[in-house]
């Protein structure tokens, strides 16, 4: 099954805002994801027809917010969203890398397979987040998508955030409520960015203070 048949909403490289080379890597990633999806539940089956907008474009926009960042950490990478998408873009920036933390062994195997097949600058850590974090280098950006509440995300990543990393966390229509709740436990500054894929969604950019 080709990505174009499985995902009729596939954009052009210019519409996605990436180079043709990066777009080809993303096409290859989508093909591998759909291939493995038959054996491992990497994404919700209902989202497959919208894979390019719901997952790929949604992940690409994170890099657009921090194009100068070279070292990233993605927590709870799952099927590689946004981690493998970001890695596909980072190929074009020498010295860049992204650490993918995923405790599920089968999903971690998928992440490693894609990283090897496409020669991506991605390092996979098949560990629980709390076990992996202390050994990770301080990144420019730490991100996580559809993992947990903002309060818990800050808890998972606070060692990295305290060291100077910026958090970029995609959130849905409840972003405001999650921010209010997180402020009860953490001190931070933040900015809200409009999502390019969902008018009701936001991307929370935050720094611990």
Any overview of this molecule?
- With about 210 residues, the chain is an alpha/beta fold.
- The protein has one domain (about 60-209): Vaccinia Virus protein VP39 (Rossmann fold, 3-Layer(aba) Sandwich), CATH 3.40.50.150.
- The protein is built from nine helices and seven strands; from the N terminus they run H-H-H-H-E-H-E-H-E-H-E-H-E-H-E-E.
- It has helices spanning about 5, 15, 20-35, 50-65, 85-90, 105-115, 130, 150-160, 175-180, and strands spanning about 70-75, 95-100, 120-125, 140-145, 165-170, 190-195, 200-209.
- The chain has a seven-stranded mixed beta sheet, sandwiched between helices.
- Helix 4 (about 50-65) crosses helix 5 (about 85-90).
- The longest helix has 18 residues, at about 20-35.
- The chain is globular and about 45 Å long.
- The relative contact order is 0.13.
- Mean pLDDT is about 95; it is low at about 1-10.
